[in-house]
Amino acid sequence: MKHTGGGVFSEKKNSSPLDASRLSVIAVLFIKVILMIGSIL
């Protein structure tokens, strides 16, 4: 794997399913944080 300018984009394309699951996990954590802040306020 050569680390060139386009290498980052090719890696992102190969790990698109992982990015989708990662985004869903981040979204859930973000919602939990908002709910926690809302309950505190």
Task: Note down, in words, how this protein is organized.
This protein is mainly α and 41 residues long. It has one domain. The chain is built from two helices and no strands. It is rod-shaped, with a radius of gyration of 16 Å. The chain crosses the membrane at residues 20-40. Keywords: Membrane, Transmembrane, Transmembrane helix.
| SSE ordering | HH
Largest sheet: none
* Rg result: 16 Å
3D shape = rod-shaped
Strand content: under 5%
Summarize this entry quickly.
With 41 residues, the chain is an all-alpha fold. The chain has 2 helices and no strands.
What descriptors fit this protein?
41 residues, single chain, 2 helices, transmembrane, transmembrane helix, membrane, mainly alpha
Secondary structure topology:
Blueprint: H1 7-14, H2 16-40
